[in-house]
DNA sequence: CAGTGAGCGAGCTTCCGCTTGACTT
């Protein structure tokens, strides 16, 4: 490539993504060199806000540390080029990227052309090349306003939290609203009072002309409030006659869902494949880089014409002409910028790909959804049946569906979030006609509760944010990860609780009552706000209601639009926002109390001391006794993961003070059980072993079981050391989560995959340590901390990516 | 990385949106 550049790179095209660059280069031929900027190349400086508020909000831009090499290369290529084509996306951010490139690369208007395309097809690219335009500075200004606003909000608000709640917390236009949604939903759930009623379901039978019996399930059109009413109704039915009153048939059609956007892909991958949003994005990224799907960060539901015709071809040849029905979908989400296509297979005739299981499954989803979107409506007939009960005004109701023509259903059926336990998918009905008399097999009235509002899954939260126009396709996954990293939210399974329900059954001419138990409220992989999340949210809602308002983003987006069309100067818009906002910040710093979410639960009956819960330095805690009391210090205990300041009772809090507790002696040393930073544990001889979640209870655990845990832990620790050397006790070969590694003086070093860890000699190990040390010299000054992706655990220390990159090059 | 929770205070944390690798213990 540099070869080509040196010869005659007359035309340098710069796009945002390297995978895109590769594709486009193929379309453009040898006179064009296509390079990537890898997204934004500059950002606001981190120090001093990066915005000079006293100088008309002058932004201080610096080249991002991980983009220095990219910029250097682009600068040298520009010098060898006659024309530079800035081909970043056609949206606010893309325009800004073009402008930053223009500034940083020292381009002139004469040598620069700005081009845009919304799909990566040869026609679209060639057309774009024929229609260049200048950089739209108004659009750039709209982006600067967006960027500066987010910085001002984030960097003024977060320090308020450090002072008033806890260090290292954060607030921002997007994340704070995301947390608010979760907190408000949690409160709705806490305030929810389940109401119950008896739902009556009957199993009837009808005999056809051949004497064959067919079963029919039907539900009563009324739910009884009390068990007595239900009992009376069933008793009445013992001798009742059941007659088909009416049979109606109604045809209707169903249409396929639109092709995937980032948000809908995340939702469906979550529902159908159980992927987290981060997982979905990283799998999609790999498919994209391998050229198998189009760009995965998009808010557009549009398909390129070439893709539609490829889909038509494929549907025709696989399923026949009658399955074809092309459509143009329109986006419904607020603030969509539609710089790309919808997510679809690059080659629509490919119905599967090679790769990991996850890649194959996600591709399959994308393939089917894309094809289905261009397939015929399904035609369905629904049959409704009403059944009268002699001597009663209530009626039973049954419905069934018959698919007359499957259409797109042949390919793809969209899933839904709501699990309605009371409803069954309508199936087939036996042949029935009006005035048929039905026989009764059995009937039951089961107590059912109204359901609490559901907690958000990651993907459901993304959908909600998108609906409100908050956040962008590129930020959904990172936002979800940020609010978890800050400790505002945890993603968890909750087992649910047993709940009794009453049942009245009519069977064999007898009506009987019983009480049974079901499990209620179990949650799988849902987002729960933590106490910190709630306290921070309440603080922000109280002092900055305008910022965490659900409409805030929509409002500022309107301003940005006005800037983009040149009606408003961006610095003016920012000034109008910042003056009052800054006063709000100052006032809050001055007036507001420290917020610890403190709640007084009552007094301990044994000691008469007050019991309170609040957020302490190490998280939510309970406190027994006053801090002001002179004679003795209060006792403290951390809340467990499942407990919350908002819902804990006095009894539960008092229990916490019973820990740590002595279980007895083992090998002449004390065995103690307690709850620590990582949950319940047993301690023995200076070593800790975790209690098994859902199995062991720290209040109940026996000495015998504790010893088991200690022994298991010992076993694991023994396996941890693969090899050690007498000559060098600091060095050990250890067994870790990702396989064997070398531990040396508190640092860890990788063992190359091809080496057998057990056979390594001390010399070889020391060499690996030395090599590893060379690769990562200690440039601890690098202030940019790497964001980890999906898992959200931030365990990495600062690393020097720069040194590694340049080393890898040669 | 584990039984903490006062107060002192240095130095640090933090936003959103565009992009990929790097590489974990």
UniProtKB/TrEMBL annotation:
<dbReference type="GO" id="GO:0006265">
    <property type="term" value="P:DNA topological change"/>
</dbReference>
<feature type="site" description="Interaction with DNA">
    <location>
        <position position="146"/>
    </location>
</feature>
<feature type="compositionally biased region" description="Low complexity">
    <location>
        <begin position="789"/>
        <end position="800"/>
    </location>
</feature>
<dbReference type="InterPro" id="IPR034149">
    <property type="entry name" value="TOPRIM_TopoI"/>
</dbReference>
<dbReference type="Pfam" id="PF01751">
    <property type="entry name" value="Toprim"/>
</dbReference>
<keyword id="KW-0238">DNA-binding</keyword>
<dbReference type="InterPro" id="IPR000380">
    <property type="entry name" value="Topo_IA"/>
</dbReference>
<dbReference type="InterPro" id="IPR013497">
    <property type="entry name" value="Topo_IA_cen"/>
</dbReference>
<dbReference type="InterPro" id="IPR013826">
    <property type="entry name" value="Topo_IA_cen_sub3"/>
</dbReference>
<feature type="compositionally biased region" description="Basic residues">
    <location>
        <begin position="801"/>
        <end position="810"/>
    </location>
</feature>
<comment type="subunit">
    <text>Monomer.</text>
</comment>
<feature type="domain" description="Toprim">
    <location>
        <begin position="10"/>
        <end position="120"/>
    </location>
</feature>
<keyword id="KW-0460">Magnesium</keyword>
<feature type="site" description="Interaction with DNA">
    <location>
        <position position="40"/>
    </location>
</feature>
<dbReference type="Pfam" id="PF13368">
    <property type="entry name" value="Toprim_C_rpt"/>
</dbReference>
<dbReference type="InterPro" id="IPR003602">
    <property type="entry name" value="Topo_IA_DNA-bd_dom"/>
</dbReference>
<dbReference type="GO" id="GO:0003917">
    <property type="term" value="F:DNA topoisomerase type I (single strand cut, ATP-independent) activity"/>
</dbReference>
<comment type="function">
    <text>Releases the supercoiling and torsional tension of DNA, which is introduced during the DNA replication and transcription, by transiently cleaving and rejoining one strand of the DNA duplex. Introduces a single-strand break via transesterification at a target site in duplex DNA. The scissile phosphodiester is attacked by the catalytic tyrosine of the enzyme, resulting in the formation of a DNA-(5'-phosphotyrosyl)-enzyme intermediate and the expulsion of a 3'-OH DNA strand. The free DNA strand then undergoes passage around the unbroken strand, thus removing DNA supercoils.</text>
</comment>
<dbReference type="InterPro" id="IPR023406">
    <property type="entry name" value="Topo_IA_AS"/>
</dbReference>
<feature type="region of interest" description="Interaction with DNA">
    <location>
        <begin position="170"/>
        <end position="175"/>
    </location>
</feature>
<dbReference type="InterPro" id="IPR013824">
    <property type="entry name" value="Topo_IA_cen_sub1"/>
</dbReference>
<feature type="site" description="Interaction with DNA">
    <location>
        <position position="150"/>
    </location>
</feature>
<keyword id="KW-0479">Metal-binding</keyword>
<keyword id="KW-0413">Isomerase</keyword>
<dbReference type="Pfam" id="PF01131">
    <property type="entry name" value="Topoisom_bac"/>
</dbReference>
<comment type="similarity">
    <text>Belongs to the type IA topoisomerase family.</text>
</comment>
<dbReference type="InterPro" id="IPR003601">
    <property type="entry name" value="Topo_IA_2"/>
</dbReference>
<dbReference type="InterPro" id="IPR025589">
    <property type="entry name" value="Toprim_C_rpt"/>
</dbReference>
<dbReference type="InterPro" id="IPR013825">
    <property type="entry name" value="Topo_IA_cen_sub2"/>
</dbReference>
<feature type="site" description="Interaction with DNA">
    <location>
        <position position="486"/>
    </location>
</feature>
<dbReference type="GO" id="GO:0046872">
    <property type="term" value="F:metal ion binding"/>
</dbReference>
<dbReference type="GO" id="GO:0003677">
    <property type="term" value="F:DNA binding"/>
</dbReference>
<dbReference type="InterPro" id="IPR005733">
    <property type="entry name" value="TopoI_bac-type"/>
</dbReference>
<dbReference type="InterPro" id="IPR006171">
    <property type="entry name" value="TOPRIM_dom"/>
</dbReference>
<feature type="site" description="Interaction with DNA">
    <location>
        <position position="162"/>
    </location>
</feature>
<feature type="region of interest" description="Disordered">
    <location>
        <begin position="773"/>
        <end position="810"/>
    </location>
</feature>
<feature type="site" description="Interaction with DNA">
    <location>
        <position position="297"/>
    </location>
</feature>
<feature type="domain" description="Topo IA-type catalytic">
    <location>
        <begin position="136"/>
        <end position="585"/>
    </location>
</feature>
<feature type="site" description="Interaction with DNA">
    <location>
        <position position="147"/>
    </location>
</feature>
<feature type="active site" description="O-(5'-phospho-DNA)-tyrosine intermediate">
    <location>
        <position position="295"/>
    </location>
</feature>
<keyword id="KW-0799">Topoisomerase</keyword>
<dbReference type="InterPro" id="IPR023405">
    <property type="entry name" value="Topo_IA_core_domain"/>
</dbReference>
């Amino acid at each position: 490539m540099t070869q080509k550049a040196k010869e005659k790179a007359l035309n340098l095209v710069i796009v945002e993504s390297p995978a895109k660059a590769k594709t486009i280069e193929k379309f453009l031929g040898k006179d064009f060199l296509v390079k990537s900027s890898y997204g934004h190349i500059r950002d606001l400086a981190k120090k001093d806000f990066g915005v000079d508020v006293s100088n008309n909000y002058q932004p201080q831009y610096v080249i991002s540390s991980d983009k220095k090499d990219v910029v250097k290369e682009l600068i040298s290529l520009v010098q060898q080029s006659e024309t530079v084509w800035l081909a970043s996306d056609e949206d606010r951010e893309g325009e800004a990227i073009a402008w930053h490139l223009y500034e940083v690369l020292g381009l002139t208007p004469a040598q620069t052309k700005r081009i845009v395309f919304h799909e990566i097809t040869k026609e679209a690219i060639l057309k774009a090349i024929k229609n260049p335009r200048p950089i739209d500075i108004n659009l750039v200004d709209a982006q600067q306003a967006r960027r500066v606003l987010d910085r001002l909000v984030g960097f003024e608000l977060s320090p308020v939290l450090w002072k008033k709640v806890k260090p290292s917390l954060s607030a921002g236009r997007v994340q704070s609203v995301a947390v608010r949604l979760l907190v408000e939903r949690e409160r709705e759930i806490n305030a929810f009072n389940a109401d119950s009623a008896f739902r009556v379901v009957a199993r009837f039978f009808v005999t056809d002309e051949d004497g064959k019996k067919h079963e029919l399930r039907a539900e009563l059109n009324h739910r009884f409030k009390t068990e007595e009413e239900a009992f009376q109704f069933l008793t009445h039915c013992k001798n009742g006659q059941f007659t088909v009153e009416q049979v109606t048939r109604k045809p209707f059609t169903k249409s396929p869902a639109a092709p995937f956007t980032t948000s809908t892909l995340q939702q469906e991958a979550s529902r159908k494949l159980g992927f987290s949003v981060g997982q979905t994005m990283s799998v999609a990224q790999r498919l994209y880089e391998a050229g198998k799907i189009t760009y995965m960060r998009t808010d557009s539901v549009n398909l390129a014409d070439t893709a539609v015709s490829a889909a038509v071809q494929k549907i025709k040849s696989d399923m026949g002409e009658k399955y074809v029905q092309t459509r143009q979908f329109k986006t419904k989400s607020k603030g969509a910028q539609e710089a790309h296509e919808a997510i679809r297979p690059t080659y629509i005739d490919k119905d599967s790909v090679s790769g990991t299981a996850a890649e194959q499954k996600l591709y399959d989803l994308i393939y089917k959804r894309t094809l289905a979107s261009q397939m015929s409506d399904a035609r369905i007939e629904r049959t409704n049946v009403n059944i009268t009960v002699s001597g009663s005004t209530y009626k039973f109701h049954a419905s069934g569906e018959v698919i007359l023509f499957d259409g797109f259903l042949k390919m793809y059926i969209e899933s839904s979030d709501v699990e309605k336990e009371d409803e069954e998918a309508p199936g087939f009905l036996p042949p029935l006609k009006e005035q048929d008399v039905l026989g009764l097999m059995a009937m039951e009235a089961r107590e059912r509760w109204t359901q609490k509002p559901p907690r958000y899954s990651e993907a459901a939260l993304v959908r909600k944010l998108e609906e409100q126009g908050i956040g962008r396709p590129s930020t959904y996954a990172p936002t979800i990860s940020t609010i978890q990293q800050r400790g505002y939210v945890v993603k968890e399974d909750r087992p649910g609780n047993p709940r009794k329900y009453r049942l009245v059954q009519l069977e064999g001419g007898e009506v009987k009552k019983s009480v049974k138990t079901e499990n209620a409220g179990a949650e799988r992989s849902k987002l729960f706000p933590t106490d910190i999340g709630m306290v921070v949210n309440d603080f922000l809602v109280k002092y900055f209601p305008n910022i965490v308002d659900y409409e805030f983003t929509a409002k500022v987006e309107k301003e940005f639009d006005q800037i983009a069309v040149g009606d408003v100067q961006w610095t003016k818009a920012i000034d109008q926002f910042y003056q009052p906002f800054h006063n709000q910040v100052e006032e809050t710093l001055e007036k507001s109390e420290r917020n610890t979410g403190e709640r007084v639960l009552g007094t301990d009956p044994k000691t008469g001391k007050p019991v309170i819960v609040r957020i302490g330095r190490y998280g939510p805690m309970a406190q027994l006794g006053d801090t002001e009391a002179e004679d003795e210090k209060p006792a403290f205990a951390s809340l467990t993961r499942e407990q919350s300041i908002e819902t804990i009772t006095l009894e539960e809090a008092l229990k916490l003070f019973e820990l740590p507790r002595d279980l007895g002696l083992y090998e002449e040393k004390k065995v103690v059980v307690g709850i620590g930073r990582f949950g319940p544990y047993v301690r023995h001889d200076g070593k800790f072993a975790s209690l098994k979640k859902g199995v062991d209870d720290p209040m109940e655990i026996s000495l015998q079981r504790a010893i088991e845990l200690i022994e298991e832990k010992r076993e694991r620790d023994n396996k941890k050391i693969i090899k050690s050397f007498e000559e060098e006790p600091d060095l050990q070969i250890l067994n870790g989560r990702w396989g064997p590694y070398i531990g040396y003086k508190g640092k860890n070093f990788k063992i190359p995959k091809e080496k057998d860890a057990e056979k390594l000699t001390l010399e070889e190990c020391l060499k690996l340590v030395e090599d590893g040390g060379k690769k990562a010299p200690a440039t601890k000054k690098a202030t940019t901390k790497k964001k980890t992706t999906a898992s959200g655990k931030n365990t990495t220390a600062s690393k020097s990516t720069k040194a590694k990159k340049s080393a890898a090059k040669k």
